[in-house]
Backbone:
């Protein structure tokens, strides 16, 4: 069996794009994959066009060889754009191999360690947060993550000092004001929900070391079970400094694009939960290596999962196969439906049973994508919100 084509579908799904790929073979078996570099899909599509020329004629069953061939086929190895492209390819190759052998992907990874994959949900702080959390608890969720309080936002009719730039309500994020309000509301939430719920919050790498330490010190001990991405990840030494200043467990890694990026965070005891993203880190091939490194340091995976059914199902297969797994991120609407999971676009998609996904039994990935939909709903330019401080300086989203 040989690879005959790589088709690239940057597709508008819901309110954002998804970059879906299809690898075809001369054996009549095809595989689906997805890239996770949201907001820069065309950059990944360009990398995939380069990789298409390498892939055609290759044996899709030689997944490890192909991973090395793609990674090492240029002088400038790695990086988020290239490994996001490799991730999609690697997932699609595993889909092909599973279908060809008649087994689900987790069988290719050593068999299953569990029968169901537990998940966690996200709620927003503010009015109604306690009621929303309790509704999820009644449905079976015992891990709840919150976003941060929005903090400062310019009132209507008032202009911030932005050097002439236009700003709208919600464009301003002031860390000190946000973390103060977030700490108060998390304390209220913990008091209302009790000790049995695992409670975390995500600051989307918007804080400095001092601000993150200040935030942790604002809450009573035991309020927070994990703090996700409080600061940017380029400098592990900065995280080590923060690690010495607080005992709150960290959940880090959704931006990492290789095992090498994970390495200092694992070996130096910086992170406690690995927020691995299978659609960015290098697919199943690289994810299993990261999982093994984490297992040796007693670190559980808590995967990042912001996309759709392909990313979700791929992560379910990974979660089924590794021993060191905590919970999978899932976006659940108030009505209980999953975000970006339109059955008209994706058939045979994962379905929650309570607060967990049953481990799939269908061959391969277990998801199919509607190519006609992709042709009718082409890529649209989408940008993440642009945030600024009150003084007009740039802030992370």
Residues:
């Amino acid at each position: 069996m040989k690879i005959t084509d790589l088709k690239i579908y940057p597709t508008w799904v819901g309110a954002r794009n998804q970059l879906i790929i299809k690898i075809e073979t001369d054996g009549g078996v095809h595989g689906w994959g997805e890239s996770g570099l949201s907001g820069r899909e065309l950059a990944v599509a360009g990398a995939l066009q380069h990789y298409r020329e390498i892939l055609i004629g290759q044996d899709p069953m030689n997944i490890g060889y192909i991973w090395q061939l793609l990674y090492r086929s240029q002088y400038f190895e790695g990086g988020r754009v290239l490994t996001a492209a490799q991730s999609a390819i690697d997932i699609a190759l595993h889909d092909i191999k599973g279908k060809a052998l008649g087994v689900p992907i987790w069988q290719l990874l050593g068999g299953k360690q569990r029968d169901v994959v537990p998940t966690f949900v996200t709620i927003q702080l503010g009015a109604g947060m306690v009621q929303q959390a309790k509704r999820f608890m009644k449905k079976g969720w015992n891990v709840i993550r919150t976003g941060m309080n929005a903090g400062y936002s310019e009132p209507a009719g008032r202009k911030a000092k932005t050097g002439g730039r236009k700003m709208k309500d919600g464009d301003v994020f002031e860390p000190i004001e946000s973390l103060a309000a977030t700490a108060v509301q998390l304390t209220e939430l913990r008091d209302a929900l009790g000790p049995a719920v695992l409670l975390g919050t995500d600051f989307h790498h918007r804080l400095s070391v001092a601000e993150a330490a200040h935030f942790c010190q604002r809450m009573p001990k035991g309020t927070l079970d994990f703090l996700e991405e409080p600061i940017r990840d380029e400098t592990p030494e900065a995280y080590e400094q923060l690690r010495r200043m607080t005992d709150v467990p960290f959940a880090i890694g959704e931006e990492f694009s290789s095992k090498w990026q994970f390495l200092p965070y694992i070996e130096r005891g910086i992170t406690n939960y690995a927020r691995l993203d299978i659609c960015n880190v290098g697919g199943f091939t690289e994810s299993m290596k990261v999982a093994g490194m984490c297992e040796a340091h007693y670190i559980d995976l808590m995967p990042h999962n912001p996309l759709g059914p392909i990313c979700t199902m791929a992560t379910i297969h990974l979660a089924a196969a590794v021993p060191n797994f905590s919970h999978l991120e899932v976006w659940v609407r108030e009505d209980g439906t999953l975000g970006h999971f339109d059955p008209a676009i994706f058939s045979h998609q994962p379905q929650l049973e309570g607060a967990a996904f049953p481990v799939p039994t269908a061959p391969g990935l277990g998801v199919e994508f509607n190519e006609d939909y992709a042709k009718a709903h082409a890529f649209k330019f989408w940008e993440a919100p642009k945030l600024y401080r009150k003084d007009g300086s740039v802030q992370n989203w």
The chain has two domains: 3-104, 108-363.
